[in-house]
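Re: zinc ion structure - here you go.
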Amino acid sequence: MGSGAIKWHVHCSVCGAFIEKSAQSDSEVECKKCRSTLEIFVKDDMVSVRPIHIRDEQLKSRMRTYSRKMMNQGS
Ligand SMILES: [Zn+2]
């Protein structure tokens, strides 16, 4: 049960591309596919992905939330 090795498997809120995030703290990542900058919030067992620097208000509201428990079920 080592901490720091947790990898989040999330998807770009804009284009849906798969993104792997290894850090446990909040950070920003760039989607390799659509070049959108995504803001990632980590809170307890949940991670939220939100596109930033984007003009489209509809896309901006497409924050996606992932739970670690949900992901463990899939593997
Ligand atoms: Zn993308």
